Amino acid sequence: MKFSVFLLCFTIFTNSFSQNPFSEADAKNIVDTFFEGFHIGDTLLMKSGMAENMVMQTAFTDKNGKHKVNTDDANAFISAIANRAADQKWDERLLDYKVEIDGNLAHVWTPYEFWLNGNFSHCGANSFTLARFDTGWKIIHIIDSRRKEDCK
Fold it and tell me: Has this prediction a pTM greater than 0.90?
């Protein structure tokens, strides 16, 4: 009987103080929610997974063959989504997910193809960095690559 009481108390104590672990499925869900909002133009849905000061960057090679990294304003990106013409269909197709998690940090790598109004535009990979805040997990950084060659 004493053992049963001890086991009950121990179980209640550990369940009360343990946290549900953040899983690969949780990380993928944040990215999927971001893109769901992106595709339908719902900026509130997108922002639900974004940290307040999220950083956005693009790594690319310009027309002159110079390798560059541009840093973009996340608020300007959200504004572009909100003001996108109704006849424009932006379709970013995620081809895979590679997720790594360590403590309060997670990384999601997603190769993609981007289609504009049903026409292939470019391909590349997205790299999402997520961090745990008191309010939950949020995207703190997105960097993507963009190219038109070697996409298959």
Answer: no
Q: What is the pLDDT of residues 17-34, one digit of tens each?
A: 456 699 999 999 999 999
Which DSSP string do the residues of 52-87 spell out, in sequence order? EEEEEEEEEE-TTS-EEEEEE-HHHHHHHHHT--TT
Check if the beta carbon of residue 140 is closer than 8 Å to that of residue 55: yes
**Could you give the count of Cα atoms lying within 13 Å of 93 in the half-sphere of its Cβ?**
13
- The per-residue pLDDT for range 53-111, each reduced to its tens digit, is 999 999 999 999 999 999 999 999 999 999 999 999 999 999 999 999 999 999 999 99
| Count of C-beta atoms within a 10 Å radius of residue 67 | 8
Helix (H) or strand (E) segment spanning residue 145 = strand 136-145
Q: How far apart are CA 40 and CA 46, in angstroms?
A: 10
Would strands 50-61 and 90-94 be described as parallel, antiparallel, or unpaired?
unpaired
Q: What is the pLDDT of residue 114?
A: 97
DSSP tag of 89? -
Of the candidate CATH numbers 3.30.70.2860, 3.30.70.270, 3.40.50.620, 3.10.450.50, the domain formed by 23-145 belongs to 3.10.450.50
